């Protein structure tokens, strides 16, 4: 319990640091971002409209930095992330909720697929340590993990989307022929649009699961109880899965819990390449349009997701590994 | 003359050690050859390419040909010249920022592991906070707001977001070293803390630091490419990342201009794989269990009973 309380306190500190960074970084840059945006609007909007926007963005309030900070924290507590410039006048929180659905579905499902296949393959590769499989797979996946994954996305898009025309190359669903909702046309269309991004993400992430599992599994295979099982003449599959893999999977489970936090931010660039209507695409729009409140809102969302997942991983460890429960101090 | 001898021989042995290390493991040698190729390309390459990578020509969007080995961009710029010239930015930034970032991790990790107490609490807190903050989004946040866009900004952004993992690993390693005999002996001799930390403990963590360095360099190169792809780099200079940005923004893909976005990606992938390969090689040297004994899968029972292990094992550990 004490351990968990310490962790919770730590995450509170981390969250505070993130929120403060989010407040400080935009104010470090010379020229208020909101003012920069207003300057672009000059001549396009009426003076009254500009004045209204000034109030909306909190420019010209002449409040001290500290007052602004307190007000910023207060707004956050009320879930007020400001107004998006890109999608004026939609509040940032609405933009984020809308796009989050797409990201969560796409990346969440691919994470599970990648984890299951990768962990099984990793166990198999470790079991066949020294075989052809073991000497081919890890270097191959080493190579794959060093590739910029948005570039893989570009190639898939070019080969399967553009040249072969098997899959659509833009967006999350066909906006011309289907309407979002629980109807078959839309679901089929959404699935078609998701295949390429999903495949890209799996290719990019599976190496980590394989290598992680392989390396712990090799250590586990040297344990006496595995040797004992082999000496008893148990079937290979049983030794591999219930003796070795079961004890080697703990680090991968922790990684899985941690990866849940990266569901939001793990595929930012892939989404951008496929113009997939998720958080990554929203972030690109925000960067291109100097939509600072949207950038800040997305960063905050990502941080919260990651911190929550870390806490979840801590909880998982306490449940799965009794040693952590009894650990004192550090 | 005689006075010069000791340093010279010391240098020679060190060179010899480096050579042995390079040839010891096949992964390490292959990786180092590839890395050397890219470093050469970045340093000497731009001098050998005659075309100006930024010059516009009449040959718009040409596929690869003898005149333009890797074709041309939408503005008629030579892609081959861009790849070679871009190597300078990408490789140099990757290595320089990688080395600086690793230096931060080493100092923070080793100092906090050795001294413990308040220093450790403070350093660990900062490290852990940076560890849980998501790196790429934080980098995007920083890069989006910093007014000046260029290698310096990218370097700072990548450095700030990339040091924490290494610091944590080195801290725990130092913690386990602190109580060893040789450290206590050094303390008993009255050596300064600075000397103990950097000359007694740190050399024992060389393999770890090297692995950290390689991983960080990969991270730097990938992060740089990603940020530049988003348009957060210096768009007036040529690098692999800006090549992605321009090819994406001029719809190279939909124009079928594969020769534009393929080469920089291949370069990054091959360089990254080479770095990762050296990393794995070092892992294998440091942890014999991960080593693959070629051509056989001896039963665990046999291995445990000491029935011949591969001969290279003894050779490598010697």
List the defining traits of the structure above.
heterodimer; A: 330 residues; mainly alpha; MetI-like fold; 15 helices; globular; B: 318 residues; 71% helix; elongated; disordered N terminus; disordered C terminus
Within CATH, the superfamily of chain B carries the name MetI-like
Described by the principal axes of the CA atoms, the overall outline of chain A is: globular
Strand content range of chain B: under 5%
Largest interface, Cβ cutoff 8 Å: A-B, 68 and 57 residues
Number of helices of chain A: 15
Straight-line distance between termini of chain B: 34 Å
What CATH first level of the domain at 100-289 in chain A would be assigned?
A: Mainly Alpha
Question: What share of residues of chain A is helical?
Answer: over 70%
Q: Secondary-structure element order of chain B, as H and E?
A: HHHHHHHHHHHHHHH
How do you describe this structure in short?
With 330 residues, chain A is an all-alpha fold. Chain A has helices at 2-28, 33-41, 47-57, 65-77, 92-127, 132-145, 149-163, 184-221, 224-231, 236-248, 250-261, 268-273, 279-288, 292-320, 322-326.
Could you characterize the architecture of this molecule?
The complex is a heterodimer of chains A (330) and B (318). Helix content of chain A is 75%, strand content 0%. Chain A is mainly α and 330 residues long. Chain A has a domain at 100-289: Orthogonal Bundle (MetI-like fold), CATH 1.10.3720. The longest helix of chain A is centred in the middle third of the chain and has 38 residues, at 184-221. Chain A is globular. The mean pLDDT of chain A is 80. Chain B has a single domain (44-317), classed as MetI-like (MetI-like fold, Orthogonal Bundle), CATH 1.10.3720. Helix content of chain B is 71%, strand content 0%. Chain B contains 15 helices and no strands. Chain B has helices spanning 5-24, 26-43, 45-48, 79-115, 117-132, 135-145, 151-162, 164-178, 181-188, 193-201, 206-229, 240-249, 258-286, 300-304, 311-317. Chain B is elongated, with a radius of gyration of 24 Å. At the A-B interface, helix 1, helix 6, helix 7, helix 8 and helix 9 of A face helix 5, helix 6, helix 11, helix 13 and helix 14 of B.
